[in-house]
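Duplicate of earlier report; asparagine synthase (glutamine-hydrolyzing) input re-posted below.
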Amino acid sequence: MCGILAVLGCIDNSQAKRSRIIELSRRLRHRGPDWSGLHSHEDCYLAHERLAIIDPTSGDQPLYNQDKTVVVTVNGEIYNHKILREKLKSHQFWTGSDCEVIAHLYEEHGEEFIDMLDGMFAFVLLDTRDKSFIAARDAIGVIPLYIGWGVDGSVWFASEMKALSDDCEQFMAFPPGHIYSSKQGGLRRWYNPPWYSELVPSTLPSTPYDPLVLRNAFEQAVIKRLMTDVPFGVLLSGGLDSSLVASVALHHLEKSEAAQWGSQLHTFCIGLKGSPDLKAGREVANYLGTRHHEFHFTVQDGIDAIEEVIYHIETYDVTTIRASTPMFLMSRKIKSGSATIYQCYLSLLICIKICFLKYNLEHKLKQKLRNLSNYSFYSLYYCYNMHKASLSY
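Output:
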């Protein structure tokens, strides 16, 4: 994935301020080594560190609408961008980037377009005609985003806290499923499914469980993520979730955009010598016929990496650090050959949460789903970005 930084309304358009923005954006360069872009308009700055996944030759950011009055910096993937482009035939696009549709959707619909996006994303958009701006984060917070406030009244946004901590008097995680609007003066929720509200007594489906519906939804979720113009692979620990993702990806590979990189699926696994994950991953890879890559590490390797892991995941939570360290070590190895990695973690969490329904704890299920962004898949995302690889859930 990429790194984004935006500073809006800082009452300073000096060369020194521009240099400072570039310096702060450089702190995010591990997220995107392919291109560094900066757009400035009076006292507003939008910076971008790009990891090229879609249209690597011309999709540099920031991105614009046709007359370049709307500018946007985006970290994410928009899975339905081709469908949206069909609805925007009267618009002239500058690139083949999946994220460019955001600028044109804003031009067409104003701020009320976020729920048209099918994907994972965090973006900041500036309308230079009136200097208004919006920022938004995907429904459950797969893509990280932080918001901060400067002493001069400026509003800051960044992919990681380290780009905000020195210049903002206050900053926090941007809540998932929300939009910040300068016109409305704050945050509001754009993602409002019926099940989200605690006030509605029962909103879960009453129809009988149908395994074919679940299977189709799962397959479609994997298929739409096989959208890449760069080499890719799948994490395969041999567990149920990763094995299913690898199987579905392999089955649909030849019909996907990813087929340009060959019909043999690359899978990856890491563990201590003799660990059950290595054995299980190897067995599944042999069954599926993937090109399997197995990495080993020692306890000392993990200890040596902890300081760097903490710097990148930006937390001292012990459980998160423990889960992130092997992923950090593996991402370092994977980056030598693949830019996009597919990992199944959210589906596992959601299926585990469904156990609450068995005991009629619907309120607990809703609570857990609302807090998905707090789980360790977030730290796994950071681990791959620190080595310039993209992780797709």
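The CA atoms of residues 108 and 214 lie 35 Å apart.

Merging into the original ticket.
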